[in-house]
Amino acid sequence: MAGVDLPLVNEPAVNPEWVDDLLLGGPDATVRLRLDRPIDTAALRRSVALAGDRLRAEGLVAGGTVALRLPPSLTYIAFLLAAWRIGAQVSLLDHRLTQHEVDGALERIGAQYVVDALESKGHRLCGYAEVVARVSAREGGRPAGTAHALVQFSSGSTGASKVIARTSDDLIAELARYDRLPEFPRAGERVVLLSSIVHVLGLVGGLLNALHTGAELVFPRRLTAEGILAAVAESDLPTTIIGVPFHAELLTSIADPAPLPQLRRMIVAGELVRPSVPTRFRETFGVALGTMYGMTELGVIATDLDGTRWPSVEPTHGMDLRVSGGELWIAMPASPYLGAQDPSRFVDGWLCTKDAAELDAGLLTVLGRLDSQVSIGGLKVDLTEVEQAIAALPAVREAVVLYDGGIQAYLSLTDGATAEQVQAALTETLAPFKRPRRLVVLPALPRTTTGKVVRATAALVAAEAASR
Amino acid sequence: MLSGFGDRGTGEVGETLDSLELTWLIAQVEQRYGVELELSDEVFAGMATVTGAVDTLARVLPGAQGHG
After folding, report:
1. Which domains occur in chain A, in start order?
2. Of A90, A315, A408, A468, which alpha carbon lies 20 to 30 A from A177's?
3. Contact A259, A248 (CB under 8 A)
4. Domain positions in chain B
């Protein structure tokens, strides 16, 4: 990562000027965000200042820590930028996580303050919410132990989430990588954003890039196919849709969409695109379905924004990639993980991605995962975490979780327990996107001759058929 | 309608609907019937299963029975 200086440990998080310099500049009257109403630069700066006043009034200072647990909203954006301007370290918690998951995450990061929603309006398929925020101090919270500005969580194979941290310099370097992509939206253009602004694609590729370049960022009123296209049609400015492959499939399910001459392209990331989708997208809308490859640890890594290299992607500026034993490794100046970490993920300055990949003449082709992580609508879920959560329930004797068109759990129950009890308990412990689509209760899980539980899909499906 | 999501056979669609399946279903219903569904929490809660979704849609889509 050329040009990025490593910040010193135990320093206040950042040079907070970067927020004003790189994100909140520009003419007062330029529309920056469009939620239920247009928000211009002056209004955005006012919202950020008000959020900053509330955080300071509670006692947040440079080098302090705050966790945001808010749905996508102006409130979320204002508190995020405000906390960064103060020089605090901000942890982002997906608002769909259960209280159990949130408690675990807060315990690990030791945030001093939490901002959550006292009230939230907006239906489930609305691209944004109206939020009344509450700022609370947490007992036992600690100031930042590192100079990272951003802390995010990813489903982890050890049962607990991975805690991933990035410095402001790292975020600035990612914005510079986007700057070098001429196909990526900038001033005078619009972005219709479908991805969550809590996760890296929507946060940096969507929100921060739009604020940085001056592109207008649009959150659709309805995240349905018609709603997304209506958001595109609202303006004549060249428009890029950013989402996950699911959204591209949703849009291509429309039979005869009205022509959208302003649609420049759609860009998706977060999981592999199924082979038929790019062609179908171009046939339906006459523009490219571009793809990106990125990770929470690093942000955008490689792109194919014109859809001409699919399924390959071209590394973005400064990315140093290699394939070792079939696994993609990426050079990084320091480990991105905070706290307890799996030592096999960062080795001698290389991030081991656990993605199977090929590098050929400088082009990267990602083939799939080498571990138990799957992607559900672009959100990463480690099947080991789901399996451990299920196996830990008192009603469950043993469980195997696998991915077969969706998350499937095969389990046997303790005496007298029911599948409904398991279902109910999981709503307390696992976020909706991590819960199995199907719970298959068997009298006992099939085992090998040596007594190990069988994990092969075919054997489990056969056991299910036999138990009927 | 749901089997179009991921090109599955109709037999492969389970009884419980996750949020992606629900989004897909709502988009297909709105397109086929040319309506904009009221997406209240109540409607969502009723549509967590295939059976519940059929009942809910029959209620919010007068005249839709028999075409799904």
Report:
1. 1-166 (3.40.50.980), 374-467 (3.30.300.30)
2. A90
3. no
4. 2-60
